Amino acid sequence: xxxxxxxxxxxxxxxxxSVAFWCNPISGHATLYWYQQILGQGPKLLIQFQNNGxxxxxxxxxxxxxxxRLKGVDSTLKIQPAKLEDSAVYLxxxxxxxxxxxxxxxxxxxxxxx
Amino acid sequence: xxxxxQSPQSMFIQEGEDVSMNCTSSSIFNTWLWYKQDPGEGPVLxxxxxxxxxxxxxxxxxxxxxxxxxxxxxxxxxxxxxxxxIYFCAGxxxxxAQKLVFGQGTRLTINP
Lengths: 114, 112
Hints:
The structure holds 2 protein chains of 2 kinds.
Chain A: E1 5-7, E2 10-13, E3 19-24, E4 31-37, E5 44-50, E6 53-56, E7 65-68, E8 75-79, E9 88-95, E10 104-105, E11 109-113
Parallel strand pairs in A: 2-11
Antiparallel strand pairs in A: 1-3, 3-8, 4-5, 4-9, 5-6, 7-8, 9-10, 9-11
Chain B: E1 5-7, E2 10-14, E3 19-24, E4 29-37, E5 44-49, E6 55-58, E7 61-65, E8 71-76, E9 85-93, E10 100-102, E11 106-111
Parallel strand pairs in B: 2-11
Antiparallel strand pairs in B: 1-3, 3-8, 4-5, 4-9, 6-7, 7-8, 9-10, 9-11
């Protein structure tokens, strides 16, 4: 079974630029999560999708972050405009219908904002 | 927001030693998960706990779901070099949106 795929793996941008990350979850997984992991900290949930609907986006900075999962499969997370404090690893995770209590993570996208 | 206090923050041990780490919170959880994260990779699930008092093993790893549902611990026996990494606890709150809340991580370093 293929794991969660993410791209790009690394991205360096200047502040005020925009950036987008892509995630393809494990086949058949209805739930998709985006996490932000700042260096030295645990992951923090940004947004959770169930199929193509948003379940929780309470910690998503909506003035600059947006995410979509149009067809209930893959997803994109966008930052516009980026700030220095957005430098972090952005992790995507997915969970199946009968795996509500566990999540499987992708390798992450490392973002550096200069 | 909700917070998990994970300790210790870092550990430096000799190969072959046993390791113990724990997570505590003021909130009640219905699930505890333990993950390991290697450099440049996402967290990988080690053990999942679903019931208060549950004790579960995965090879040399043993984890327990605290009776109060506010804590959990992870033990690693007879550590080996590949155990090096960062270990995270994560809890799913019993109320609210049921999102996972992560601890700050325990960085394990092993001297051969």
